[in-house]
Write a structure and sequence with these properties.
429 residues, alpha/beta, 2 domains, 8-stranded parallel sheet, 11 helices, 20 strands, 30% helix
């Protein structure tokens, strides 16, 4: 597993996209001392960068919300899959780390997480055995995972038994009809909770939901929908508690929340009134880098509900590209394609404009510039015929849904607001 020491000692070279091929290899730990400068052209384009000031602002912003709400945060590691950032989130006070599979769990453990929550159903006996083996090799770490059916529960138990695993904590997931995973009603979830409590090697640790895919940014609709869902989740927890299914727990876990409506989750799960303490665990992951598209809209909706105080989070993740062609007056072609930036939520958003040899600092890109298409290595940028954009200009693009941009890069550069490279950040997708 790539420990943090191993990552810092790893050598970077031209086999990494975004590494300047004219430079000799250097280690991750040495990256900040290389004197690299984005705006001087020291990095090949396209290139992915994280603005350190925005990263720190976003981390402080959400931790203040979590502290004020009384909830705990287990950020979802799949957003960045970067153990260096995992370690920073833990130092900031994260309760644990959320993962989606065993690969990510191993990274979380090596980054120092003492609690690893797989907010997903383990779907093969082999992966359940791997989960159990990881738990057995790390007895000081608490491992939690989900179930939503008797069939999945059976293969989970079989795999854990095969690995000779210690007792593993399980949360029952409550979904919604027509949604993704999760029991479709509270009655079925309660039956499954009884089965978890009765299965050797497993312990019912709480209940869970994921509301993020159902958030529409329609204030009235979201407040009602997420509120009803959280009340149903609380009702499930109370039923489990009344039946004594949380056998020897010090506290019951109530977990939900991506980065889209955590305010509604906290409000909906407050005041659990169980026979033992309850801990609300949010799983926001995209808060750290934020974005300039989907999550910016989500946070605007959260702010409209009065749950954002002070300056909202900023888009920290950018992908820079050069203008390579101006084939028609109303378009420019840039060196940014599907292999460089996620396009599942929105196409990348032009954020900065910089002309080498003319500009000292980037200027905001004109508001009417818009990406309208992509190939593997090309982006189509709509501009106005009178815009003085030229071949060789550089555009800094914001992203939407950062998860699907991070996974395009094994190497992301941290930069300060003047464009100086502060560090190298390795991802492990």
């Amino acid at each position: 597993m790539p420990t943090l020491d191993h990552i810092l000692a790893e050598r970077l070279d031209a086999s990494f996209k975004g590494f300047p091929s004219e430079r000799p290899a250097f280690t991750v730990a040495e990256a900040g001392a290389q004197g690299l400068q984005l705006l001087r052209g020291d990095l090949p384009m396209p290139v992915a960068v994280l603005r350190e000031s925005a990263l720190r602002h976003n981390a402080d912003w959400l931790m203040r919300f979590v502290a004020a709400s009384g909830a705990s945060l287990a950020p979802h590691g799949k957003t960045t899959n970067a153990p260096q950032l995992f370690a920073e989130q833990l130092r900031d006070g994260a309760w644990g780390l959320t993962v989606a599979n065993v690969h990510q769990a191993r990274l979380a453990v090596e980054a120092g997480a003492q609690r690893v929550l797989m907010a997903n159903q383990i779907a093969s006996v082999g992966d359940a055995a791997r989960w159990g083996a990881l738990a057995g090799a790390n007895p000081a770490v608490r491992f939690l995972t989900l179930t939503d059916s008797s069939a999945q529960l059976a293969l989970l138990a079989e795999g854990l038994a095969r690995a000779g695993a210690p007792r593993v904590d399980v949360l029952v997931e409550l979904g919604t009809p027509g949604g993704r995973t999760g029991c479709r009603d509270a009655a079925g979830a309660l039956v499954l909770a009884r089965a978890v409590a009765a299965t050797p090697g497993l312990r019912l640790a709480g209940v869970e939901a994921f509301e993020g895919l159902n958030v529409s940014n329609d204030a009235a609709r979201d407040t009602a929908f997420v509120g009803d869902w959280m009340r149903a989740l609380l009702g499930l927890a109370r039923d489990c508690d009344r039946e004594g299914l949380f056998a020897d727990l010090d506290e019951v876990l109530l977990s939900a929340g991506g980065s889209a409506a955590y305010d509604l989750v906290v409000g909906g799960l407050a005041g659990a009134a169980l026979s033992r303490p309850a801990r609300v665990v949010l799983r926001s992951g995209c808060y750290l880098s934020h974005d300039d598209g989907m999550y910016r809209r989500h946070v605007a909706a959260i702010a409209a509900r009065g749950a954002v105080h002070g300056e909202p989070p900023r888009g920290a993740l950018e992908v820079w590209a050069a203008v390579q062609s101006r084939p028609e007056p109303d378009r420019a072609i840039v060196t940014l394609g599907r292999r460089d930036v996620g396009t599942d939520a929105d196409l990348p958003l032009p954020k900065w404009w910089f002309r080498p040899g003319r500009d000292v600092q980037p200027v905001p890109a004109p508001a009417h510039w818009a990406v309208f298409g992509h190939n593997d290595q090309h982006g189509y940028l709509r501009v106005a015929p009178a815009d003085p954009i030229e071949v060789g200009d550089w555009i800094g693009f914001g992203v939407s849904h950062p998860c699907t941009t991070f996974d395009k890069w094994r190497l992301v550069w941290g930069i300060d607001d003047a464009g100086h490279v502060t560090r190298a950040i390795r991802t492990y997708f």
